[in-house]
Amino acid sequence: MRDLMCSGWEPAPPLSAAERRVPVPPPLSAKVDLLFATHRGVLSAAALRAAGVAGDQIAEWCAVGSMRRCPGRLLEVPASVDEVTPLRAIALRYPKAVFAMETAAALHELDAFDEAPLSPPTVFVPGGGRLVEGRVVRRGDDLRPPDIVQVRGLRVTSVTRTIADLGAAVAPDLVERALESALRSARTTEEALWAACKTIPRTGRSGPRVLAAILRRRGVGTRFTDSDAETRFLQIVRHPRLAEPRRQRPIIVDGIRQASVDFAFDLGGGGAAARELWVEIDGALAHSGKQALVRDLRRQNTLMREQPILLRFPATDVYGSSAYVRQETWHHLGLRNRQSAG
């Protein structure tokens, strides 16, 4: 022992009385593990007993922390919990609840909401009811069967209805980003969105009014943007004296369509003197690597045959240097870079 002490070894300190009393949590059975994993970490006590699990066994698991009790006679297994577990707990306590607005947009993974937190949730409860875990926006009695879909095992407002309601909770720019991504992924249509504006009761509701204003500004039959970065570019450079640019403007050389540009602004003039400002938004994935560089340079040389003014912005500048993107675009359009107008 003396030799060990001299070499720097020290005996482990004795366990305290509290540490000696801590039991080893008994493992959950494979059947119970599977039940909780299937239901994203939360189940009602009644469902667990119906699966043949004795009440004494549930109490033992809860006593040692393998399982824990939640409000509403629900049980949760920490190892199976994920981001939708709190929403599943609400759905179990309120079977008629429908997740809506920002929560629905996040569950649908619409642009601007694809990384948004799911809690605290926004919920419609047809017939009313107090929801402690979330925020009840309204009773939701006007929801029709097509307005409700299943996403990750939860009742959620459809993409169209979600976008029509969003304006009551978030800024119009976020609604526009969600709208463009939904059109791009063919999960709604311009016609369906206009119909929602007309059929959802507007008394005391700003969502349909916000959506209608966005649809009027973009114009009937306007093509969707090809990325969220393109939508953000439009929002960054808008100005009261500036018309919306043409999207995906085709470039025809010698009678053959050679390419298209993301945006084309009319600089005035007429006939052969007509000039345009073309803007390209370059995403990192589509423009990386040696082959992509060669392809981009050849494409740009083809575009320059038309003698436009061409601006190219990486998506990183659109998101991280919006003032620079606005300044460069407005400069070529003859506009003053007033931050308040952006």
Attribute tags:
342 residues; alpha+beta; Endonuclease, Chain A; 15 helices; 16% strand
General description of the model:
The protein is elongated. It has 342 residues and is an alpha+beta fold. A hairpin with a 2-residue loop joins strand 9 (246-253) and strand 10. The protein folds into three domains: 25-80; 92-218, no CATH class; 228-341, VSR Endonuclease (Endonuclease, Chain A, 3-Layer(aba) Sandwich), CATH 3.40.960. The chain is 40% helix and 16% strand. Helix 7 crosses helix 8, helix 8 (159-166) runs antiparallel to helix 9 (172-184) and helix 9 runs antiparallel to helix 12 (228-237). The strands form four sheets. The chain has a four-stranded mixed sheet with strand order 9-10-11-12, with helices on both faces. A three-stranded antiparallel sheet has the order 1-3-2, with helices on both faces. Mean pLDDT is 83; it is low at 337-342.
